[in-house]
Design a protein that fits this description.
Layout lengths: L6 H10 L12 E5 L2 E5 L10 E5 L3 H18 L4 E3 L9 H7 L3 E11 L10 E5 L5 H12 L3 H12 L6 E8 L2 E10 L4 E8 L8 H15 L4 E7 L3 H7 L3 E10 L1
Parallel strand pairs: 9-10
Antiparallel strand pairs: 1-2, 2-3, 4-11, 5-10, 5-11, 6-7, 7-8, 8-9
Amino acid sequence: MANDWSESELLEEVVAAPRRAWVPLPDLCVIERPGWLQIVTPSFRTGGFNEVSLTQVADDEADAAIDAAIAEYRRLGIAFRWPVAPGSRPHDLAERLTRRGLVASMVRGMARSTADPPRAPAGAVVEQVDERSADQFTSVMAEGWASDAGELAAVQAAIFSQPERSHRLFLARWDGEPAAVASYVAFPRSAYLLGGVTLPRFRGKGLYRALVAARMRDAAARGLTLATSQAREGSSAPILERMGFRTVCSFPIFRG
């Protein structure tokens, strides 16, 4: 458990740090001002890298800010996310987004010490992805998330072009076949786990757990003592809970 972290420190790592988990794609635009953080990536049309990740706006300014952001994404024809995390303002932000037709799903901000990672199941082989296995990683992720492989390949290329990479990618094999993928972002104090998906024909074999364990071991080797995740209520959150992660907060993420 993360018992040596205060609640405010955990919230910082679980909610605030992941706001900057993006990959520096060539056309990624960061819109930042006091109380507002937004990213727009026109080339990434099917989800991800398009998000209003921080909203702390006065009540009388909120509608104009919301409408302008939604209009820009819709003008570009790209999917986007809008988390309503603890500290978001106005307090009725979720209701305002719902009225504009955005659809919410619940996530849990979760955390666990990287010490003593759970044991990987027998039969799962996990490797860190490099340029030689990037195509296999992309293929599994595209199939697992029903995403555009071309967009994902551009992300992997941007990651591998960085001299000191904060993003680490992992591929799990079953009987030698690429079966599941995941990644994490190394922040100064924590490892943010994201992107885990297992292909349907390989589910139930513990590959997701194996990828969590591999990322925790890698993060611990880098001196990071805390692993975090924003996990979906209906899928990964219960698995992480069984692996010793505890829920720090719960909040909706809207999609449009």
